[in-house]
UniProtKB/TrEMBL annotation:
Function: Antioxidant protein with alkyl hydroperoxidase activity. Required for the reduction of the AhpC active site cysteine residues and for the regeneration of the AhpC enzyme activity.
UniProt name for this protein: Alkyl hydroperoxide reductase AhpD
Gene3D superfamilies (alphabetical): AhpD-like (1.20.1290.10)
Disulfide bonds: 131-134
Organism classification: Bacteria, Pseudomonadati, Pseudomonadota, Alphaproteobacteria, Rhodospirillales
Alphabetical list of InterPro entries matching this protein: AhpD, AhpD-like, AhpD_core, CMD-like
Domain Carboxymuconolactone decarboxylase-like: 95-174
Active site, renumbered: 131 (proton donor), 134 (cysteine sulfenic acid (-soh) intermediate)
Gene Ontology MF term list: disulfide oxidoreductase activity; hydroperoxide reductase activity; peroxiredoxin activity
Known catalytic reactions: N(6)-[(R)-dihydrolipoyl]-L-lysyl-[lipoyl-carrier protein] + a hydroperoxide = N(6)-[(R)-lipoyl]-L-lysyl-[lipoyl-carrier protein] + an alcohol + H2O
Keywords, sorted A to Z: Antioxidant, Disulfide bond, Oxidoreductase, Peroxidase, Redox-active center
Gene Ontology annotations of biological process type: cell redox homeostasis; response to oxidative stress
Enzyme class: oxidoreductase
Xref: NCBIfam families: ahpD, ahpD_dom
Length: 177
């Protein structure tokens, strides 16, 4: 499985996604670890096996073992946090914001890679999962860590294409069933 296989499988009606795959996986604002960690965390968060397998094959070759694990950890921990913090924000009841989360989040403090990279991956996953509180928090951390607005935009572009690919392949699979 490869990016080439992924591109070949994109239906004609989603040609823009095919064109965007290669485009978003290159950046003058992000390094390879940031790009491929974002792609892997985003693919995992988008939950489509075909997209995950294609991105995983490339990411395994481009990421160190530590970065590979950290990108997967970002997808995992933000899957939990995005639900919890989105609820506390959207419920409209400020009492929930005052309560301790009482959820373990040790990986955020010691991700095994540069903290800014882990925050970037967490930001991309939060964008996919639609958690405004988490987006705001991680965007501030990433910007404070030195990632430019263009770099942040590049990470969100990666997340958006991974999510759109997953939605397209899920939709196509549902049409066949």
């Amino acid at each position: 499985m490869s990016i080439s296989d992924l591109k070949s499988a994109v239906p004609e009606y989603a040609k823009d996604l095919k064109l965007n795959i290669t485009n978003v996986l290159t950046s003058t604002s992000l390094n390879d670890q940031q790009i491929w960690g974002t792609a892997l965390a985003s693919a995992l968060s988008s939950r489509n096996a075909f997209v995950i397998k294609a991105i995983n094959a490339e990411a395994k070759e481009k990421l160190s073992a530590e970065a590979y694990s950290a990108a997967k950890s970002a997808a995992s921990i933000m899957g939990m946090n995005n639900i919890y913090y989105r609820f506390t924000h959207l419920s409209g009841n400020e009492d929930y914001l005052k309560l301790p989360a009482r959820l373990r989040m040790n990986i955020i403090g010691r991700p095994g890679v540069d903290k800014v990279d882990f925050e970037l991956w967490s930001l991309a996953v939060s964008a996919i999962n639609g958690c405004g509180m988490c987006i705001e928090s991680h965007e501030k951390q990433v910007a404070a860590g030195g990632i430019s607005k263009e770099g942040i935009q590049d990470a969100i572009r990666i997340a958006s294409v991974m999510h759109a690919l997953a939605a397209t392949f899920d939709g196509e699979a549902a049409l066949v069933e």
